[in-house]
Amino acid sequence: METSKGYELPSLDGISTPQEAGEAINRIYADAMADLGHPWVNGNHVQHTDFLKRVAELQEIKLEGADLRSDLQIAMEAAVEKQDERQAAQFAEAEAVMDELADTGFPRHSLRQDITNYELALLRMRLQVARGEYDSVLPEIERELGRVNAPPAMHETLRALRTLPGTMGKAKEQLAETLLLFIQEEKRKKFGRLNMP
Q: Which residues are within 8 A (CB) of 6 and not within 5 positions of it... i.e. 6 or more apart?
């Protein structure tokens, strides 16, 4: 049954922001809840189609510039952006370590942008060895030997390295480099590639 009672169709004049459009939609909903004969809810009313079209137009204004991504999409994009920032910082640090290594006579090579944590850790250890910082690097080497399940011979090499006097710098460096190359090769086997020479 068609109703003849006329309802004022909200004008789009003066509605230019998403907030204003949302307020106009809310007024239509409130009016419809208060009056079940309202054309928004009464499909038999002659103005029913007009109100449907007007609400659709208001919805378009309301959604202009709105972020329609889900919370999960937003969180994932933020996580990817944060990871990209961390990766860029890690690459910059690796480049700085490589520059310092080159200053000690270590052959310089280019690094890939996606350098990993363990690759950076190996570069840092190599730099500590080149500087003769054995007190700080030997515990790290020992941890890495444990992580790669090194055979007893590698642990013996570490013990020998610890007992060498400081005056035997070249011999210490060679033993440390042997251990680092072993760790590097074990990591290469485990992870499939290394961004290292």
A: 47
